[in-house]
Amino acid sequence: MINFIKRNTTLFFIASITLGLAPFRPEPHLWGKIKWIMGGGVNLQPMDWFDFVLHASPWILMISSILLKINLKRRS
């Protein structure tokens, strides 16, 4: 699994830009969810949490992939 994450940084980047930010207008969906959560999450439903995790997962995978590659270069 770790090798899969290390090898697919480009795939995770594309997924982050497309799925992680869609819909783009009036503001990226993930950004709106983050603002909502930071504002106290008033009326936040379980479906909203699921939606947040769904849109954040490509970003989490991309950051994990980059950190694993940096760690691998540091060890070499």
Fold and architecture overview:
The chain has 76 residues and is an all-alpha fold. The protein has one domain. 74% of the residues lie in helices and 0% in strands. It is built from four helices and no strands. The chain is elongated. It starts with a helix and ends with a helix. The mean pLDDT is 87.
Write a concise synopsis of the structure shown.
By secondary structure, this protein is mainly alpha-helical.
The percent range for strand residues is under 5%
Considering DSSP H and I runs of 4 or more, what fraction of the residues is helical? over 70%
- Following the backbone from N to C, one meets helices and strands in this order, namely HHHH
Query: Describe the biggest sheet?
Result: none
The total number of structural domains is 1
Euclidean distance between termini CA atoms: 21 Å
Helix and strand composition category: mainly alpha
Could you tell me the radius of gyration in angstroms?
15 Å
SS summary, helix count: 4
Number of β-strand runs: 0
Uncertain segments are none
Provide the residue-averaged pLDDT: 87
Shape: elongated
